[in-house]
Amino acid sequence: MAFPAQPTLIVPAEAEAYCVKCKATHKVVQGEVVTVKNGKLALKGKCEVCGTTMMKFLPQKKQALPAEAATSSADSPEPSL
Ligand SMILES: [Zn+2]
């Protein structure tokens, strides 16, 4: 498996994800940021407790989803042009 020489993405030091085996949210160890088929970023790592591989989709700052924009605008309404 080939890894990129210069990873530009920073893996969160203490990321948490849902473990399907533990059926609970646990800390991700040995995490790395990967790009899935649809081009989204995801954090791939292992469950701290049981070692099961976990994946957690990361928020993409480049393109804000309409749903998220609507939610944030509800908290701090901005005048629309
Ligand atoms: Zn687990």
Overview of the structural elements:
This protein is mostly beta strands and 81 residues long. The protein is 12% helix and 35% strand. It has one helix at residues 66-75, and strands at residues 16-19, 24-35, 41-47, 53-57. The model has no long low-confidence stretch (mean pLDDT 78). The radius of gyration is 16 Å and the shape is extended. A 4-stranded antiparallel sheet has the order 1-2-3-4, with no helix packed on it. The protein binds zinc ion. Zinc ion (ZN) binds at residues 19, 21-22, 26, 47, 49-50, 52.
What descriptive keywords fit this protein?
four-stranded antiparallel beta sheet; binds zinc ion; extended; 81 residues; 1 helix; mainly beta
Summarize the structure.
With 81 residues, the chain is mostly beta strands.
Average pLDDT taken over every residue: 78
Strand content: 25-35%
Q: What is the radius of gyration computed over CA atoms, rounded to a whole number of angstroms?
A: 16 Å
Bound heterogens, unique:
zinc ion
Spans of at least 5 consecutive residues with low confidence: none
Q: Name the shape in a single word.
A: extended
Largest sheet: 4 strands, antiparallel
> Helix proportion of residues, in percent?
10-25%
Order of helices and strands: EEEEH
In terms of structural class, how would the helical and strand content be classed? mainly beta
Tally the beta strands. 4
Enumerate how many helices there are, as a single number.
1
Distance separating the two termini: 49 Å
Biggest β-sheet: strands ordered side by side in the sheet? 1-2-3-4
